[in-house]
Amino acid sequence: MKSFTSLRNQFANLAKNNTPTTLAIGDELINDSLRYLTSKFYLNERSYTDVTVAQTQFYNLPPQVKELINITVTIGTVKWIPKVCPSRDYWDSLNVIQFYQDMPSFFFVYNGQVGIFPTPSSSGNTITMNYKVRIKDLSQADYSTGTVGITTATNTITGGSTTFVKNMEDRWIRITEPTGDGNWYQIKTYNSATSLTLYNNYTGPTIASGASYVIGEMPIMPEDYQDLAVYRALWIYYTSRVPSPAQATVYKGMYDDGYKVLDAEFGQKTTNVALTDDQTPVYNPNLFVKSQTGI
């Protein structure tokens, strides 16, 4: 995996320029590229839940929402899927007369909220909002002050001379080999300046204390394709910032090649279930009516 520090260092090395101005340009171009790539695919999709309140029609959208994909309302064991309202005029026409009913037909996004029609008549039914989240810029340098320890098959990191902070939640930590296993683990909870909780249990050898480590801020791109943000940034850099057609062509080619592989792997959410290339059509026997003669 490549942290913010790794990506900016890679950009500076390939651009052969590590001045503060160039690093700032690289940071901007890399973050722009990450926003483009994550939005192009489905990597930034999230879900958020709320509950209905009797006779309340509008509900706040989740934090940092970029685009609402759809909503569902679960009533008992039935999940209702309302349709998106096509326009403000259509929404206003639906609401000419106030109407209360738990089973929803439409939803409408307006001013940071989502409205449900008909207005829910009962409280406590679960609203699930599926949405695309706005991507936060990477900006935090790697952190490796002090040392850490952890017991195998547990998820609590204990620091020594560390100054962990709250905004390290959702970053990633790697305990350096050979003391640790060298794998990246995502941080779930900040407990104190010397304690963090991981999402998953640590699978390496038990470390009483004293192990070196690094905490990095990572893009949500799949790790095999995180370089694409750097290649796209360099392509733009050599096209407009420091014009060099030959260099721009090189990095555009590297980006295009990687993008094709990314699209092949993550361009759709499910794999093709076809077992062969046989294109013989499949006929539904129910479409054929048996004649009275049996033929």
Structure, briefly:
With 295 residues, the protein is α+β, with helices and mostly antiparallel strands.
What does this structure look like?
By secondary structure, this protein is of the alpha+beta class. The chain has helices at residues 4-15, 20-40, 88-94, 227-241, 245-266, and strands at 45-51, 58-60, 65-75, 78-80, 83-84, 106-110, 113-117, 126-133, 147-150, 156-160, 172-175, 184-192, 195-198, 207-211, 213-216. The protein has a 7-stranded antiparallel sheet, with no helix packed on it. A 4-stranded antiparallel sheet has the order 1-8-3-4, with no helix packed on it. Strands 2-7-6-5 form a 4-stranded mixed sheet, covered by helices on one side. A hairpin with a 2-residue loop joins strand 3 and strand 4 (78-80). The longest helix has 22 residues, at 245-266.
Please supply descriptive tags for the structure shown above.
295 residues; alpha+beta; four-stranded antiparallel beta sheet; 15 strands; 27% strand; globular
Strand content: 25-35%
Assembly annotation:
single chain
- Assign a percent range to the helix content: 25-40%
The N- and C-terminal alpha carbons lie at a distance of: 65 Å
Q: Regions with pLDDT < 50 over 5+ consecutive residues?
A: 273-280
Reported for the largest beta sheet, the result is: 7 strands, antiparallel
Structural class: alpha+beta
Kindly report the average pLDDT value: 92
- Summed up, the helix count is 5
What's the number of extended β-strand segments? 15
Q: What is the C-alpha radius of gyration, as a whole number of Å?
A: 26 Å
Instruction: Tell me the strand order in the biggest sheet.
Output: 14-9-10-13-12-11-15
List the helices and strands in order.
HHEEEEEHEEEEEEEEEEHH
Q: Based on Cα principal axes, name the global outline.
A: globular
